[in-house]
Write a structure and sequence with these properties.
A hairpin with a 5-residue loop joins strand 14 and strand 15 (409-414). By secondary structure, this protein is of the alpha/beta class. It folds into two domains: 5-26 and 469-561, Immunoglobulins (Immunoglobulin-like, Sandwich); 63-452, Alkaline Phosphatase, subunit A. The strands form six sheets. The chain has a ten-stranded mixed sheet with strand order 7-8-6-5-10-1-11-17-2-18, with helices on both faces. The chain has a five-stranded mixed sheet with strand order 20-26-25-22-23. Helix 3 packs across helix 13 and helix 12 (338-344) runs antiparallel to helix 13. The radius of gyration is 24 Å and the shape is globular.
């Protein structure tokens, strides 16, 4: 998978920007070049914001640990490449253990957990047992525990809008934990309640997961899982959960990407997007690992899947943010679920494709944060998985090999069982940007995210002598020439690096006229500037970086050719 011309320009641009050195990257991004004496302490200090976040965007890669991130990065960007999720300034490690059922009050530790207790951990700030959603432990799996209030519910109580989106069934464990309380994750619809009899509405309970999600009136629900919503409720009369959601709560039902694009506000009621009977299609066709000599090889690359009219995660994230954006703030949880599910299937291409798509969603969130710095972004997983990068195709029970962006072979192995793969108990990455993001540093437990998302009591930064905000710095790179035809068709590739900025704007000018204007993230990025206007003479690419310490302008002249 060769690098694009834009990426090559970016590489050249950053190489030439040693004047701002590590300030062109985040604390979590690429390390300074060997021999560099640039210290990043002031940069980190400038990014610390103890204020309570107004909005929270929580992005979850199900089963996404550092090994899976590295494999996806190596394949899609190369060993020295970086994802958007690598650019968040504060990074830590997060433990994910849960509990086991028992007599209590001290429940045994479960060192390896599934997605139900892990998602419940950050949603409620408390531990629970496998299979259980935002409900405390108990003596047996079929005996309900105490309902715990979730972050999403508390944002609603504060009068804020909420969203919950996923690439799995919306009734699956991770999205369900945000707004449902039930003793078994399998109780997705009214006809799935054999393990959750006390929760049935006919028994005086809150109902199945599908019913609870709409009863909570989450403003934006997007994902798969239509099959749970076409089940009849236990109220009789043949009404389905879907028709109940429309009649009782005014949900507008969306079934494909065109429906999603057509919704422009929440004025006409909440939206329920159900884009597949069960899970959405992974981004890539599968490459399933096999016993040595393994699947794939030194020239194997992943093939994009035919996903029909299903929206991808970044599209759903963009639309959800658009609908939820308001002066009072919002909470949005967005999950890339198929990373985990394809890891279970030892499908490396499926897992890579959906991790890369998660990164696209992270960039969408960062673009929003650049205009709304009171937004906290957190990117993490729910638990680790057994995907491992190994030295060769014989180093595991099941292996697969791909050609990376570097042009070299990468082999991954799955060795937890003879077929398929499973979770592990390793700590995982957590990264954050925005108000109170510094609370994710060090080694934390996933339950600690609960208090951070709700907003911890703001602390006071050191007094006199504390580092002052850095004056913003900007730099820009592009090709020295561009033809009129390319400018009209594809646009001029431009790479921007910035530091100390909260807003970065890129403009293309000709004789004082603004031909095109784009906004990029606070640390820059790659864009294409295109115009259909008639241009003569020279073009000027102008970057303006504005932040707490002032503003900076960088320009680049580009000659027009025939």
């Amino acid at each position: 998978m060769p690098r694009t011309s834009t990426s090559l320009i970016a590489t050249g641009a950053l190489t030439g920007l040693l004047a701002i050195g590590a300030l062109a990257t985040s604390a979590a991004g690429p390390a300074p070049e060997a021999g560099s004496e640039q210290d990043r302490s002031a940069q980190l200090a400038a990014r610390i914001d103890p204020a309570e976040p107004k909005s929270v965007i929580l992005l979850i890669g199900d089963g996404m640990d550092d090994s899976m991130i590295t494999a996806a990065r190596d394949y899609a960007r190369g060993a020295d490449g970086r994802f958007a999720l690598d650019s968040l300034p504060f990074t830590g490690a997060m433990t994910t253990h849960g509990l086991k059922v028992g007599p209590g009050p001290d429940y045994p530790i479960a060192y390896v957990s599934d997605s139900a207790p892990t998602a419940s951990g950050w949603s409620t700030g408390r531990k629970t047992v496998d299979g259980r959603l935002s409900q405390g432990p108990s003596t047996a799996a079929t005996i309900p525990g105490e309902d715990y209030r979730t972050v999403l519910e508390q944002f609603q109580e504060a009068g804020k809008l909420t969203g919950d989106i996923t690439t799995s069934e919306i009734t699956d464990a991770t999205p369900a934990a945000a707004a449902a309380h039930i003793n078994a994750r399998a109780c997705k619809g009214p006809t799935d309640m054999a393990s959750c009899l006390p929760a049935k509405k006919s028994n005086g309970g809150k109902g199945s997961i599908a019913e609870q999600l709409v009863d909570h009136e989450v403003d934006v629900l997007l994902g798969g899982g239509m099959s749970s919503y076409t089940q009849p409720t236990d109220a009789g009369g043949g009404e389905t959960v879907l028709s109940y959601a429309q009649r009782e709560h005014g949900y507008r039902v969306l079934q494909d990407e065109r429906d999603l694009a057509s919704v422009t506000s929440l004025e006409d009621g909440p939206v329920l997007g159900l884009f597949a009977p069960v899970n959405l299609t992974p981004m890539n066709d599968p490459l399933v690992a096999t016993p040595p000599p393994g699947a794939g090889g030194a020239t194997t690359e992943c093939t994009p899947a035919d996903r029909g009219d299903q929206p991808d995660l970044s599209t759903m994230t963009q639309k959800a943010i658009e609908l939820l954006d308001n002066p009072e703030g919002f909470f949005l949880q967005a999950e890339s679920a198929m990373i985990d599910k394809q890891e279970h299937a030892t499908d490396i291409c499926g897992a890579i494709g959906d991790l890369v798509e998660l990164d696209e969603a992270v960039q969408v969130a960062l673009d929003y944060q650049a205009e709304h710095p009171d937004t906290l972004i957190i990117v993490t997983g729910d638990h680790a998985h057994s995907t491992q990068i190994v030295g060769g195709s014989g180093d595991g029970k099941l292996t697969a090999t791909l050609r990376t962006a570097d042009g070299d072979p990468l082999t991954v192995a799955y060795s937890t069982s003879d077929t398929g793969s499973d979770h592990t108990g390793a700590q995982i990455r957590v990264a954050a940007s925005g108000p109170q993001a510094a609370n994710v540093t060090g080694v934390i437990d996933q339950t600690d995210l609960y208090a951070t998302m709700l907003g911890r009591t703001p602390s006071t930064l050191p007094g006199p002598g504390q580092p002052q905000p850095l004056a913003p710095q900007a730099a820009v790179a592009s090709a020295p020439t561009v033809s009129r035809g390319v400018l009209r068709r594809a646009g001029l590739p431009v790479s921007v690096a910035a530091a100390g900025a909260t807003k970065v704007t890129v403009q293309l000018l000709n004789k004082g006229r603004v031909l095109a204007s784009r906004k990029v993230g606070r640390e820059g990025g790659d864009v294409r500037l295109r115009t259909r206007r008639t241009v003569t003479g020279q073009l000027v690419v102008k970057v303006v970086a504005t932040g707490p310490g002032g503003s900076d302008v960088a320009t680049r002249r580009v000659r027009i050719t025939r």
